[in-house]
Amino acid sequence: MATAEMARTAKALDLRNYITVTLAYWADTITDGAIRMLVLFYFFSLGYSPFQVASLFIFYEVFGVVTNLVGGWLAARFGLKSTLYMGLAFQLVALAMLALAPPALLTVAYVMVAQAFSGIAKDLTKMSSKSAVKLIVPDNAPSALFKWVAILTGSKNALKGVGFFLGGMLLTLLGFQRSLLVLAGLVALALLGAALLLRGDLGTANKKAKFSQMFSKNRAVNMLAAARLFLFGSRDVWFVVGLPVFLYSIGWNFWQVGGFLAIWIIGYGFVQAAAPGFIKRRVEGSREPDGRTATWLAFGLAAFPAGIALALQFGLDPNLVVVAGLIAFGVIFALNSAVHSYLILAYTDSDKVAMNVGFYYMANAGGRLVGTVLSGLLYLLYGLTACLWASVGFVLAAGLLSLLLPTSSAPRTRPITLGDLGD
After folding, report:
1. What is the CATH number of the domain that holds 9?
2. What three-state secondary structure class fits 315?
3. How many domains in the chain?
């Protein structure tokens, strides 16, 4: 009886800790989206071109790659609670740099540095929250794991869209720097709440964890990370710079572009949250998604940027083509992303979750970085259709890499070897 009571108490504590971490992650997610809109709108109003504004976020993506690599190691050595606190603290630094600086100091270089801190913050909190899911779901409950991961991932993207709206609203009502002070207050409350409510440790800290262990020896994790890089590159190669600039060039104003992208991200988040029910109804002979699911979703996704590019080349109405095409692309992309987010936790052991998730999201950030740079370069040289054809190539690469994923996503107690891989 005493043992059962202790188990129930431990489970309740794990759930409380997870809810606390998730709320802190949500606060940071809203803030992250709001900062992006504040910076975009503010510098656009100063006369910067959309491409110049996009360049402000290069350090944000670069440090996302570094943070996920180093952050996984830090989480393994010191626990997920430490990385959560560090993430929220870095966000406060980024907000303070922008909110308290004299207007003359708000140069491109200065804002790029502030965005680097914001990128570090976002990825530390994301890694902490998503890794914490693995710690509260039993290893023999893949269905529950898929559900929890999908809800967390979907809510994150929906709230990032809310952050877009919040950033625009605050800028209109309060101005640039006062808006940042409001956001700093939100993050400070999240940090204080986490410090007061979290109990015990999130996971087991391993003081002997070596940085070299960040590079996964699990082949399934490595293949999934590579597929993730190309998947997110396929989105950002046209979404980050090419799409907003194209919409602006055909007569949309900046508020319309920002509002449409915010609505798209919110809808994308809802699709991710609903992914478990949708996928299960269509996966034959298996209760949970596996490598085959990721493969057919990737190859199916390639049809949409190809269709948009062909429609534009044939001279069809760009407003209708881009809006309808982006909505369709977003649905399939969201399902693919949700499956990836489930598989990384299904393929890894609980004692390696922080490192493997950090390595995986390093690849995710690498895809965003490559996509962001290519989006601006390709649009500048060849226009939106070039960005779209690059997206097709990236998605096909993700599909080919997904062919190497295991056809069983059951939790593992050892690294997956060649013998575990499907045909």
Report:
1. 1.20.1250.20
2. coil
3. 1
Token pair for 70: 């180093």
Summarised one tens digit per residue, pLDDT across range 213-254 is: 555 567 788 889 899 999 999 999 988 778 888 888 888 876
Q: How far apart are CA 46 and CA 188, in angstroms?
A: 30
Q: Is residue 154 exposed (0-12), middle (13-18) or buried (19+ Cβ within 10 Å)?
A: buried
pLDDT in tens, 55-101: 788 888 888 778 877 766 666 666 777 888 888 999 999 999 999 98
H, E, C per residue of 30-88: HHHHHHHHHHHHHHHHCCCCHHHHHHCCHHHHHHHHHHHHHHHHHHHHHCHHHHHHHHH
pTM value?
A: 0.72
* Residue found by looking up tokens 């083509």 in the block: 321
Q: What number of H helices and E strands is found in the chain?
A: 16, 0
d(CA 69, CA 67): 5
Q: What is the pLDDT of residue 365?
A: 81
Q: What angle do CA 286, 288, 290 make, to 5 degrees?
A: 90
Per residue in 358-386, pLDDT (tens digit) is 677 788 888 988 998 888 889 888 999 99
d(CA 29, CA 158): 9
Question: Domain limits at 337?
Answer: 2-420
